[in-house]
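Students often ask why inverse folding is considered easier than folding. One informal answer: many sequences map to the same fold, so there is more than one right answer. In these notes we will look at a single instance of the problem. The structure comes first.
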């Protein structure tokens, strides 16, 4: 019967082990929909993580710095998934989060072109719309090496072989794409709605100029926290916004500045939720 302490000190008790997602749902449907991950006793985990003991828990959403990292990291995996769908012979290597987005390195027989990037981005959108669950599993190291060698992913097999044999290997699957990763990741690909591939650059395997040259695809997820809806009677603002993105007639705003449009305390995330964003000039806000 785990007792869960929320950041504001409130306690929730459950009759059986409970997942982070189930705790979020017990608090409210809005939080359940927004939950990207959780922090259990300070450790960042997936929403599928099961808590079987008394613990502290904070629900992580896209308003948290950790939430942004989870989104970026999961989008890097979506990029790799899309590349493997379009270019099955490509081998995946690593795909970390960086300060302004993410990248993923690939080994492929020819350079990726701008047309390839456009096709990969379209495939990412298609896969995101499928809203496939992102599932975590554990595997012994030697079995994981064999799995990735069988898949033809020799770079991944090399990475896994360098991990101590006593350490279980964490894998994430979305659709039929499987990747090595510590996580955590978003619950499903449908959470990944705003992204852009920006460029391709060369990168040596393991950063060593004596090794093979790989292709590094960069991408970004950048948004502020308010959305402007223009109307004859004026403008309204709501939460969650991506810079310069137009969706169903909604112009998403530019970088946040000053206008606080919503404020309320959420006990599950332990802080006052504030949505801040100032509209761009009138012309840019309403132009296509």
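Output (designed amino acids):
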């Amino acid at each position: 019967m785990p007792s869960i302490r929320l950041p504001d000190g409130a306690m929730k008790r459950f009759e059986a082990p409970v997942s982070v997602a189930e705790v979020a749902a017990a608090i409210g449907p809005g939080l359940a929909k927004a939950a990207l991950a959780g922090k259990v006793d300070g450790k960042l985990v997936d929403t599928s993580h099961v808590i079987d003991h008394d613990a502290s828990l904070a629900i992580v959403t896209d308003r948290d710095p950790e939430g942004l990292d989870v989104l970026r990291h999961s989008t890097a995996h979506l990029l790799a998934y899309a590349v493997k769908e379009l270019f099955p012979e490509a081998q995946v290597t690593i795909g970390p989060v960086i300060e302004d987005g993410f990248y993923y390195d690939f080994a492929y027989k020819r350079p990726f072109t701008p047309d390839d990037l456009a096709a990969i981005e379209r495939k990412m959108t298609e896969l995101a719309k499928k809203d496939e669950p992102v599932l975590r599993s554990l595997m012994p190291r030697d079995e994981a090496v064999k799995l990735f060698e069988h898949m033809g992913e020799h770079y991944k097999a090399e990475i896994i072989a360098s991990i101590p044999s006593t350490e279980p290997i964490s894998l994430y699957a979305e659709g039929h794409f499987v990747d090595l990763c510590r996580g955590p990741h978003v619950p499903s690909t449908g959470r990944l709605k705003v992204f852009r591939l920006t460029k391709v650059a060369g990168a040596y395997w393991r950063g060593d100029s004596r090794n093979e040259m790989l292709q590094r695809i960069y991408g970004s997820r950048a948004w502020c926290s308010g959305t402007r809806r223009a109307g004859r009677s004026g403008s309204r603002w709501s939460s969650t916004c991506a810079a310069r993105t137009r969706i169903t007639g909604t112009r998403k705003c530019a970088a946040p500045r000053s206008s606080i449009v919503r404020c309320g305390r959420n006990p599950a995330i332990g802080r006052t939720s504030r949505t801040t964003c100032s509209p761009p000039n009138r012309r840019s806000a309403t132009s296509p």
